[in-house]
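Issue 218. Parser rejects a valid record. Input:
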Amino acid sequence: GEILWLVWDPERSAGEIAASFDLTAGTISSHLSALRDAGLLVMRREGTLRRYRADRSAMEAVLPLLGSSDDK
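Output the parser choked on:
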């Protein structure tokens, strides 16, 4: 859930997302892939960067399950 809150408004690169957590790049990559496969993240390539943002329309059904940003 924390990754989704992180990319709710700003689009962020995979590196920016990884820097926000005490996890390996491979672990973050796995989480990003799973969230994309679930349709909750949108990825955009910008040169060699991959930028991610939450798919807000898909998130509407999931938001009640995540709680508020204060509940992270």
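Fixed in the parser; the record now loads. The radius of gyration is 12 Å.
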